[in-house]
């Protein structure tokens, strides 16, 4: 049985990945620019997204790009917590299992979303982009999260949605479950040893309790 769980945020707790993709293309359409393809966006999932942001600044300009992400961050709390994860978080909370978030997004960006979703206080630790030198697929975020939880990586379970995230978790020494979303379901996870993929709340609990 694991002693703690570390969650990714974007695409894992709520499906921000699909929402960000749709918001980006809405702004590109307004500007008369060519929409971003799903394949082009998928390459950034789980990582810093620098390539996408640089392209947007070039195509939309700095001000319009800022408006795009202000809209996305300001409305993401309206998205529902993903069903399997919501049930698993509830299970862990009732048993006082320590939980953390390890995200390639800025901690300062996701904290207001967690507060509006009324789940921020459920997490003992939140580690974001501003807390590490390198984001996913590097293991830094997960290593810092488990260190803050005061557990060894082998005692922690990671919940992810993307290949970059799964690589980061397993490189850090955590076992990893992946539940993909529309934007990451085409990823090839054959290079990563997972303990579960596309699982329900009940299956997450079974894996956790092994």
UniProtKB/TrEMBL annotation:
It comes from the Bacteria. GO terms for molecular function: catalytic activity; metal ion binding. InterPro entries: Beta-PGM-like (IPR051600), HAD-like_sf (IPR036412), HAD-SF_hydro_IA (IPR006439), HAD_2 (IPR041492), HAD_sf (IPR023214), PGP-like_dom2 (IPR023198). Its cofactor is Mg(2+). Keywords: Magnesium, Metal-binding. Belongs to the HAD-like hydrolase superfamily. CbbY/CbbZ/Gph/YieH family. NCBIfam families: HAD-SF-IA-v1, HAD-SF-IA-v3. This is Phosphatase phosphohexomutase.
């Amino acid at each position: 049985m694991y002693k703690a769980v570390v969650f990714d945020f974007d695409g894992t707790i709520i499906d921000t990945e699909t929402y960000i993709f749709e918001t980006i293309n809405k702004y590109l359409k307004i500007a008369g620019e060519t929409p971003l393809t799903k394949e082009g966006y998928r390459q950034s999932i789980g990582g810093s997204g620098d390539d996408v942001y640089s392209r947007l600044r070039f195509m939309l300009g700095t001000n319009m790009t800022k408006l795009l992400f202000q809209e996305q961050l300001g409305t993401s709390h309206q998205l529902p917590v993903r069903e399997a994860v919501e049930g698993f978080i509830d299970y862990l909370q009732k048993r006082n299992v320590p939980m953390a978030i390890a995200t390639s997004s800025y901690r300062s960006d996701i904290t207001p979303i967690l507060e509006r979703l009324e789940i921020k206080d459920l997490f003992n630790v939140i580690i974001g982009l501003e807390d590490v030198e390198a984001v996913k697929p590097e293991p830094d975020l997960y290593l810092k999260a488990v260190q803050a939880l005061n557990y060894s990586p082998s005692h922690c379970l990671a919940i992810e949605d993307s290949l970059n995230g799964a690589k980061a978790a397993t490189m850090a020494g955590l076992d990893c479950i992946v539940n993909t979303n529309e934007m990451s379901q085409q990823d090839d996870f054959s290079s990563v040893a997972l303990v579960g993929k596309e699982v329900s709340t009940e299956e997450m609990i079974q894996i956790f309790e092994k």
